[in-house]
């Protein structure tokens, strides 16, 4: 005789520990779970709302400087350490998790114009208004020992910016000219100049390490290759990801400089600093309009805007090397630490939490085009004056567009071409 | 040349004119400028013209014609050299060249960027070492032995020639890598795949056959198998004596087992019951006899059947004369005690012995049994088809394929047997059988190629059909002839329809019952709602709504405007035509073809605020967008792994890890090596797989 018995594997219904949730066997038959779209839509709406509810980006404020912050730099090897330079020539080393100043150095007389960390994380360089480049040790000197730079180079003109090579012992400064220095020498090994304008900022490309770009005071961006004797090319109108009078940022392709890849518009005042996220997908910009904004690299508008009542003109901004935080230094002597994703939960997440956040994110992404979801997801509070300026700008833009339309209507067909936003902004590329 | 001449001239002057006594070695270098105090050569300040020299060159015989010609050309040309470019222009050119170079250099990132953009998920920091378990070689590489125990272990490791450092492969693995090219590996893999597929197919078949409960069927099967085995063994004796020996050993083993067990003795429960029945029942007696026969067969000592095979083995060990074996090899075909022996002459014998006739009859019986099985199955299938006409075609096809394979196998057996029997052999059938054999290799498909073939198949089927002339079974008989048609069905849909139409002939009771029930229900409902006429109300309501949805004709005619007016005067036709405005008809209603449904097409404001009004950017049509929304991603509708896959974030960063910028050398190189690495992985996988298979 055959006896048939229902047999179940205890693994299917017994939980591993008593703290674990009860296992629920599921039947995925679609007829048992109807209305999947409306239910998911509701979930998406809730997720969007919760995202906004939990969006609390401000983490900490570091105060201690006695003048406006002029520059911030990350430590090359340590996530918890940053240095900031102020307008009174003071340089401070900060510990982020403890939110305290580790060390204060009176580095320069006048402004500290630029700071950069050496790639190995043993020393850092500062340039200031007193025409000097100083190299400092990361380690604080012992008790009672005076703070003194390892090395001081006296230049002929004021340096306005500095950046260090990614892997070699060379660095670049800008001022009257763009100079490339060897750490071992007291005179530049090469200097570039193109015209007589002065330069305000210079940066190495972190990946193509021999390439660098500088911003000049005649609104141009100049490209250099350290292996060549001459600069490569100059884009006259505005700068790569930098400011213009219409307060936009521009992303250029090095290979096609005649038209920007994207024009990022949202700021209502001059943009003062820009930093890319280490993943290269987004960048953060600091503006004179007292806000910082986060833009996706290929989108025309920002996905996030940060501001506080007390934050004044933001001078400098940096994205932390683990892609989690944004640091901003502003006029009113404070360094602020923000989350890069406003609603992200900090710290370790359990597997279930992680799964839930991923699901919520995906839901928001899936239903992002639905008007209610979009309305909630896009809503940001802005200070009144910025909002007013924004409206003004929009009106101006609209008026200009209308006028252009009228001109086009009343002139010979084809004589007033229809230009895209990108094409409007390029003046000339100088070879 | 010029200089030489010059030197010569000045030297000559000095010697001849000014200081004849001056010694030659006083001046080491000949120069016009050197003699500051006493030598003042003639013509020192003058320029030497080309024409001066040319005269002497013309005279000297040593100079080649070519140089003379060149010099003459030089003299005649009056042009000056071009000025070098100014600084700005040279710099511009330099910049242009440098820019081109940089552009080309930067472009080498294109592939990596594309790859990263398309990647479903990017995990930062890139190039991170995997956190999973590492290979021993990687761990050991950066580690040095210290204690004596470790040293000993290390020595042992080295002794086994296990690579510790960089070459991660063992010599054996390397050899295997060298031995097999990718192509070969692919071919081999394809072969193995095929073999596996075949194996699984046969397994499935065996399972299916095992499930058949009929004892008779199994008996027949076993008999056939045994026979087949014997035949094979005979062949094996000729072709592969070693294999035959092994088989022999196996047989010996089975004999031993049989001798040990009481399985086929008359002591079992079944046997006892049969023994009681044997008096009255012929079949029981037969069964008992069969069992005993089985026992005898199995306990019969095996005698090596062929001489040469025996020789080949014996000769190697010890020389025994042939005649020793002779008495044993003599086989009496009639003697039942010897029947278990390998009668290798049997198939070759052309004349029909009495026993063979008997076997042929038996075979016919078997054939009939098999045919019956087939018929029954067909019947059942037809029933099923009738009952569930909406069953999906695919399933049906699968079933039919199984059955048809089964059929082909049987037909194959049958054809073989008929050939053996050689009584009923027909040319057409034989060819069909051969075709079947070919078909078996290619998954048992038979294709009817011509009408003749079809006829042959009909002939085969007919005699059986005549035996039992009842209506359903003739239908079944037709069905048995179907398999070739069914194979066609995969291609031709019409065949399916005609076939189904045929199958409807059978009575189907359940549906009739269904209809009756429904009628009852309908009548009950009618009774219940006898008073109120819901249906007509509904129809009225629907027609009203339809009318409301239809665009009304706007009449703008003004009577009496431009013509006579008054009571009873209608506006003229042209006016009606011109001033009655018809709007375009609206799109057809959604419930147009649904008689018992009203679908409201009003746009509700509360829902509209939640609806997407425009097609969003990346989508090209509404269907695309709708399908993207329709697929649920939650765990309510999907399994855990699917949800995990679907909700995978695009960028993953590790908490507290510094994300360094890419290093060009690593990435560009690694990009190129990645391809080769993949190949390597593939091969190594294959190797390990092979090993598994071999083991």
From TrEMBL, chain A:
Gene3D superfamilies referenced in this protein's UniProt entry, alphabetically: YVTN repeat-like/Quinoprotein amine dehydrogenase
Coiled-coil regions listed in the entry: none
CDD domains: WD40 (cd00200)
The organism's place on the tree of life at top rank: Eukaryota
Protein name: DDB1- and CUL4-associated factor 13
InterPro entries: Sof1, WD40/YVTN_repeat-like_dom_sf, WD40_repeat_CS, WD40_repeat_dom_sf, WD40_rpt, WD_repeat_DCAF13/WDSOF1
Stored PANTHER family: DDB1- AND CUL4-ASSOCIATED FACTOR 13, U3 SMALL NUCLEOLAR RNA U3 SNORNA ASSOCIATED PROTEIN
Alphabetical UniProt keywords: Nucleus, Repeat, Ribonucleoprotein, rRNA processing, WD repeat
GO annotation, biological process: maturation of SSU-rRNA from tricistronic rRNA transcript (SSU-rRNA, 5.8S rRNA, LSU-rRNA); protein ubiquitination
WD repeat boundaries on the chain: 62-104, 264-295, 307-348
PROSITE patterns, A to Z: WD_REPEATS_1, WD_REPEATS_2, WD_REPEATS_REGION
SMART domains per record: WD40
A family per Pfam: Sof1
Compartments reported by the entry: Nucleus, Nucleolus
Cellular compartments per GO CC: small-subunit processome
Domain Sof1-like protein: 340-426
Family per record: Belongs to the WD repeat DCAF13/WDSOF1 family.
From TrEMBL, chain B:
A GO cellular component annotation in the UniProt record: small-subunit processome
Ranges where the record places region Disordered: 346-444, 463-489
Keyword entries, A-Z: Nucleus, Phosphoprotein
UniProt superkingdom: Eukaryota
Protein name: UTP14C small subunit processome component
Similarity section: Belongs to the UTP14 family.
GO biological process entries: rRNA processing
Regions of compositional bias (Acidic residues) in chain numbering: 358-371, 383-404
Keyword Nucleus: yes
Zinc is among the record's keywords: no
Subcellular location per the Swiss-Prot or TrEMBL entry: Nucleus, Nucleolus
């Amino acid at each position: 005789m055959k006896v048939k018995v229902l047999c179940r594997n205890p693994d299917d219904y017994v939980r591993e520990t008593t703290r674990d949730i009860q296992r629920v066997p599921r039947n995925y038959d679609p007829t048992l779970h109807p209305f999947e779209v409306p239910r998911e839509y509701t979930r998406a709406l809730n997720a969007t709302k919760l995202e906004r509810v939990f969006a609390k980006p401000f983490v900490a404020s570091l105060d201690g400087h006695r003048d406006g912050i002029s520059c911030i730099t990350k430590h090359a090897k340590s996530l918890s350490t940053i240095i900031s330079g102020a307008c009174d020539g003071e340089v401070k080393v900060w510990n982020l998790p403890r939110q305290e100043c580790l060390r204060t150095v009176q580095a320069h007389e006048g402004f500290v114009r630029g700071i950069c960390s050496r790639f190995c994380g043993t020393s850092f360089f500062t340039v200031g208004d007193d025409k000097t480049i100083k190299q400092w040790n990361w380690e604080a000197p012992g008790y009672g020992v005076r703070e003194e730079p390892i090395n001081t180079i006296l230049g002929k003109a004021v340096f306005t910016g500095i950046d260090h090579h990614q892997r070699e012992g060379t660095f670049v400064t800008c001022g009257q000219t763009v100079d490339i220095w060897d750490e071992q020498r007291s005179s530049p090994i090469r200097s570039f100049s193109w015209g007589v304008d002065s330069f305000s900022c210079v940066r190495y490309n972190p990946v193509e390490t021999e390439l660098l770009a500088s911003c000049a005071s005649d609104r141009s961006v100049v490209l250099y290759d350290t292996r060549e004797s001459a600069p490569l090319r100059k884009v006259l109108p505005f700068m790569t990801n930098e400011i213009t009078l219409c307060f936009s940022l521009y992303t250029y392709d090095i290979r096609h400089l005649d038209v920007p890849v994207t024009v990022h518009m949202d700021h209502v005042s001059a943009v003062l600093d820009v930093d890319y996220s280490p993943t290269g997908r987004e960048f953060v910009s600091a503006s004179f309009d007292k806000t910082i904004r986060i833009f996706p690299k290929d989108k025309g508008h920002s996905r996030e805007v940060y501001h506080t009542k007390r934050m004044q003109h933001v001078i400098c901004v940096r994205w932390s090397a683990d892609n989690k935080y944004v640091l901003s230094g502003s006029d009113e002597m404070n360094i602020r630490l923000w989350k890069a994703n406003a609603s992200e939960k900090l710290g370790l997440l359990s597997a279930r939490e992680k799964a839930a956040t991923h699901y919520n994110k995906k839901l928001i992404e899936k239903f992002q085009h639905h008007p209610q979801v979009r309305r909630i997801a896009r809503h940001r509070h802005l200070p009144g004056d910025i909002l007013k300026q924004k409206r003004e700008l929009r009106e101006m833009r609209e008026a200009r567009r209308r006028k252009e339309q009228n001109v086009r209507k009343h002139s010979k067909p084809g004589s007033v071409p229809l230009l895209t936003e990108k094409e409007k902004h390029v003046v000339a590329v100088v070879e | 040349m010029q200089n030489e001449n010059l030197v010569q001239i000045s030297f000559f002057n000095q010697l001849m004119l000014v200081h004849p006594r001056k010694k030659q070695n006083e001046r080491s270098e000949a120069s016009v400028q050197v003699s500051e105090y006493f030598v003042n050569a003639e013509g020192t300040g003058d320029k030497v013209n080309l024409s001066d020299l040319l005269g002497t060159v013309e005279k000297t015989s040593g100079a080649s014609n070519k140089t003379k010609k060149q010099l003459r050309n030089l003299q005649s040309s009056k042009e000056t050299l071009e000025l070098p470019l100014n600084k700005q222009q040279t710099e511009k050119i330099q910049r242009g060249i440098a820019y081109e170079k940089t552009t080309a250099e930067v472009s080498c990132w294109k592939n990596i960027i594309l790859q990263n953009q398309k990647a479903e998920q990017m995990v930062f920091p890139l190039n991170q070492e995997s956190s999973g378990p590492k290979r021993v070689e990687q761990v050991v590489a950066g580690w040095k032995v210290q204690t004596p125990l470790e040293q000993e272990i290390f020595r042992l490791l080295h002794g086994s020639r296990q690579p510790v450092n960089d070459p991660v492969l063992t010599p054996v693995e390397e050899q295997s890598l060298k031995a097999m090219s990718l192509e070969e590996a692919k071919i081999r893999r394809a072969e193995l795949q095929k073999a596996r597929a075949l194996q699984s197919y046969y397994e499935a078949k065996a399972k299916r056959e095992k499930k058949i409960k009929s004892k008779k069927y199994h008996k027949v099967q076993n008999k056939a198998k045994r026979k087949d085995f014997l035949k094979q063994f005979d062949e094996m004796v000729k072709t592969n004596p070693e294999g035959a020996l092994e088989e022999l050993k196996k047989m010996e083993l089975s004999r031993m087992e049989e001798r040990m067990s009481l399985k086929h003795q008359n002591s079992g429960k079944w046997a006892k019951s049969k023994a009681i029945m044997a008096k009255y029942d012929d079949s029981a007696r037969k069964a008992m006899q069969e069992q005993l026969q089985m026992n005898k067969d199995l306990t019969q000592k095996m005698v090596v059947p062929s001489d040469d095979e025996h020789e080949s083995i014996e000769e190697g060990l010890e020389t025994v004369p042939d005649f020793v074996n002779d008495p044993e090899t003599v086989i009496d075909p009639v003697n039942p005690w010897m029947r278990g022996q390998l009668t290798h002459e049997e198939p070759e014998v052309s004349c029909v012995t009495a026993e063979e006739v008997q076997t042929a009859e038996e075979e016919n019986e078997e054939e009939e049994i098999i045919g019956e099985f087939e018929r029954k199955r067909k019947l059942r299938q037809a029933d099923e088809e009738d009952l569930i006409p909406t069953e999906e075609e695919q399933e049906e096809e699968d079933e039919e394929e199984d059955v048809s394979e089964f059929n082909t196998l049987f037909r194959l057996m049958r054809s073989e047997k008929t050939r053996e029997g050689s009584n009923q052999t027909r040319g057409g059938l034989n060819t069909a059988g051969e075709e079947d054999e070919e078909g078996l290799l290619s998954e048992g498909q038979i294709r009817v190629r011509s009408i003749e073939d079809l006829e042959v198949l009909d002939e085969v089927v007919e005699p059986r059909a005549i035996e039992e002339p009842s209506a359903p079974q003739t239908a079944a008989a037709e069905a048995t002839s179907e398999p070739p048609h069914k194979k066609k069905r995969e291609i031709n849909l019409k065949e399916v329809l005609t076939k189904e139409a045929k199958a409807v002939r059978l009575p189907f009771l359940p549906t009739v019952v269904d209809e009756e029930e429904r009628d009852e229900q309908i009548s009950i409902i009618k009774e219940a709602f006898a008073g109120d006429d819901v249906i007509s109300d509904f129809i009225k309501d629907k027609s009203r709504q339809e009318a409301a949805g239809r665009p009304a004709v706007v009449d703008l005619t003004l009577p009496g405007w431009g013509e006579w007016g008054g009571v009873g005067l209608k506006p003229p036709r042209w006016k009606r035509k011109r001033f009655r405005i018809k709007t375009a008809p609206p799109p057809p209603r959604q419930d147009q073809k649904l008689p018992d449904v009203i679908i409201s097409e009003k746009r509700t404001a509360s829902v509209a605020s939640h609806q997407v009004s425009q097609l969003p950017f990346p989508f090209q049509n509404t269907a695309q967008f709708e399908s993207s929304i329709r697929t649920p991603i939650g765990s309510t509708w999907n399994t855990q792994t699917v949800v995990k896959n679907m909700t995978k974030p695009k960028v993953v960063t590790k908490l507290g890890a510094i994300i360094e910028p890419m290093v060009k050398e690593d990435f560009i190189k690694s990009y190129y090596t990645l391809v080769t690495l993949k190949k390597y992985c593939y091969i190594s996988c294959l190797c390990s797989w092979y090993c598994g298979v071999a083991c």
